[in-house]
Amino acid sequence: MNKKISQDKVVYFINYILLALLLVIELYPLIYIVSCSFSSGDALMAGRVRFLPVAPTLDSYKAVFEYSSIWVGYSNSLLYTLVGTFISITLTLFAAYPLSRDDFKGKKILMGIFLFTMMFSGGLIPSYLLVKNLGLIDTMWAIILPGSVSAYNVIVARTYFKQTIPKELLEAAQMDGCEDFKFFKSIVIPLSTPIIAVLCLWTAVGIWNSYFNPMIYINDEAKFPLQLVLRRILLLSQVNLSKGNVDPMVIQKNMYLSEMLKYGTIIISTLPLMIIYPFIQKYFVKGVMVGSVKG
Amino acid sequence: MKNTESSLKRFGQYALRHWQLYLMVSLPVIVLFIFAYAPMYGVILAFKNYQVSKGIWGSPWAENCGMNNFIRFFNNYNFKECLGNTLILSFYSMLVSIPTAILLALSLNYAKNLRFRKTVQMVSYCPYFISTVVFVGIINLLMDTRIGVIGKFVYEKFGVSVLGSAGLFPSLYVWSGVWQGVGFGSIIYIAALAGVDMEQHEAAIIDGATLLQRIKYVDIPAILPTVVIMLILNMGSVLNIGYEKVLAMQNQNNVSASEVITTYAYKVSLVSTFPDYSYSTAIGLFQSLIGLVLILVTNKIADKLTGNGFL
C-alpha cells in the first residue's frame, strides 16, 4: 500500500514537470518574437536575440505605422469580418431554428442537404469558376458568401436550441397566437446568447485569419485584407521601402527595416485577438463542448 | 394512394400555418445551392476539355470516354509523390496530434493545483488563434539559419537548414501543428474526462489501484467513444489536409516533400501560365471521392466495433 502511494506521488510530480515544460515550450516562441520586435536591427541581423530584447528600440513599430498598406488591410479586414460574421450568423440561425423543432416537417431532407456539404464538395476550380461567373471577383462577397453557411455551425446551434428551449414555452406561445418568427426573434434569440457569442467568435476569427480564398479571389491591392498584406511581408518578403533609392546606405538600412517590419507586423496583427482572448476563452471552450454532442 | 394524398394534405396544412419557418430555412438553403451544390454540378468539368469560350456545358468531352484527365493524373510522375506526401503528412499528423491531445487532457485532469492548471490551459489554447500566415511567418523567423534562434542553433550544431530540408518538412509541419493545436485539441477530451463516474475511481482506489492503473482502466475506456468520433472526423479529411499551411510553408527546397494533392491542383490551374481547369477539377474530384468513401467506411467500422458511429 505504501509503495503504491509513493509511486502515485512520483507520477504527480512528473506530471507537474511535464506541464511546466509544455508551458515553457508554448510560451518561448511568443516571448522570443515579442523580444525581437523591440530589439535593434543590428542585434536582429546578427541573431543575438535569445530571450529578452537586445538594445531595445521601437523602430520596428515605427516601420509598421509608416507602412500604409498594413492599415488599408486592417480596415478592409475589419469590414469583411463584420459584414461576413453578421450574414453568416443570420443564415446559420435561420437554418438551425426550424431544424431544431420536433414538429418541423421536411426536417430529414433538409438536414441531409446540410450534412452532405460536410462530406463532399465541388472542389477548387468549380467554386472558382462560379464566383468568377457571378462577377464577384475583387468584391468582398467572394470572401464572405461561399463559406457563409457552415453545416457544422448549423448543427451546433441546432443542438443548443434543442437542449435549451423548453417545449412548453413554444406551446404556451402558440396558444397565445404567437407566430413562429416572432417566437424566434423574441424568445429563442435572447435565450441563446451564449451560443450566438461562440458562433460569432468562431466565424469572425475564421474570416479574419483566412488567406487562401482572398488570395484567389482578390487581385486589387486596395481591397486586400490584412492576411494578404501580411503574406507579402512575411512569406514573400516583398516590402517596398526603397522607392527607387540607390544610395547603398539607404538600401542597407531598408534591408534591416524590412526584417524588423516582420516582427512588428506579427505583433500588431495578432494583438487584437490576444487582447480579447482571455475574455472569450471560456466561450470557445463551451462551444467545442456543445459541438461535441452528437447531432 | 389515399394515404399519400392525405399526408400531402397534412403537410400542406402544416406548411401553410408555419410558412415563416420555411421562409427562414429557405435563405441558407438557397445560399448552399448556389455556393455548395452548383460547384458540385461543375465537377462535370473533370470529364471535359474546358475551353473558356465555350463554357462548362459547351466544352467537348475529354478523350477515353471522358476519363482522360484522370488517366493523365494517375500516369503523371507527380501523382505518386503528391499522394505519398499527402498520406505521410496526414497520418503522421493524426498519429501525433490525437495522442498528444489526450495526454495533455489526462495531465491537466490530474494537476491538482487549480491556478497552475488554468494557466497551462489558457497559454496552450492561445496559439490556436494565430492566423496561418502569421504562424508560418513565425516559423520562418525562428528557423532562419542566420537570424532565427532555433534555426541558427541547429545549423551551427548539425549543419542542417531546418527550412531548406525536405526530409525535415513532415516533422516541422506536424510538430509545429502540435504547438499550435494541442491545447485546443485537448478541450474535447477534458470534457470527456469530466464526465467519468467518480464512483469508479473511488472503487478503484479502495481496491488499491495506482494512479496509472486508474488512468488505464477507468479513464481511457471512458474517453474511447470521443476518440473514435475524432478519428472518423479526421479520416474524412485524410487527403484534404491543411493545405493553407502547407502552401504557406512551401519553398523550392522542400517542395519534394511538401507538394500535396491540393497544392498541385491549385498550381496547375490558378498559378500556371497555361491553366488546365479540367485537369485540376479531376484531381479535386478524385480527392473528394476518396474522402467521402473514407468517412463512410470508417464510420461503418467504428459502428460495428464500438457502436459509436457518428452518422
UniProtKB/TrEMBL annotation, chain A:
Which residues span the membrane?
Answer: 12-35, 78-97, 109-129, 141-161, 182-205, 260-280
**What Gene Ontology cellular-component terms does the record carry?**
plasma membrane
The entry's keywords: Cell membrane, Membrane, Transmembrane, Transmembrane helix, Transport
The protein's topology relative to the membrane is:
Multi-pass membrane protein
Instruction: State where the protein is found.
Output: Cell membrane
Q: Name one Pfam family in it.
A: BPD_transp_1
Q: Tell me where it mainly resides.
A: membrane
ABC transmembrane type-1 domain location, by residue? Answer: 74-284
Q: Name one GO biological process term.
A: transmembrane transport
Enumerate the InterPro entries for this protein.
MetI-like (IPR000515), MetI-like_sf (IPR035906)
Q: CDD domains of this UniProt entry? A: TM_PBP2
Q: Does the keyword field hold Protein transport?
A: no
Concerning its family, UniProt says:
Belongs to the binding-protein-dependent transport system permease family.
Q: What is this protein called?
A: Sugar ABC transporter permease protein
The organism named in the record is Butyrivibrio hungatei
Automatic annotation (TrEMBL), chain B:
Q: Name one GO cellular component term.
A: plasma membrane
What InterPro entries would the database entry show? MetI-like, MetI-like_sf, UgpAE/MalFG_permease
Keyword presence, Cytoplasm:
no
**What GO biological process term is on the record, naming one?**
transmembrane transport
Q: Which CDD domains match?
A: TM_PBP2
**Cellular location(s):** Cell membrane
Recorded hits in Pfam families, A to Z, give: BPD_transp_1 (PF00528)
Keyword match Transport: yes
Coarse class of the primary localization is: membrane
Record key words, sorted = Cell membrane, Membrane, Transmembrane, Transmembrane helix, Transport
Q: Which residues form the ABC transmembrane type-1 domain?
A: 83-298
Bilayer topology term? Multi-pass membrane protein
Transmembrane residues, as ranges? Answer: 21-47, 87-110, 122-143, 172-196, 217-239, 277-297
Similarity-based family: Belongs to the binding-protein-dependent transport system permease family.
Among PANTHER family, the record links this protein to: BLL4140 PROTEIN
> Mind telling me what this protein is named?
Sugar ABC transporter permease protein
Classification from the root reads: Bacteria, Bacillati, Bacillota, Clostridia, Lachnospirales
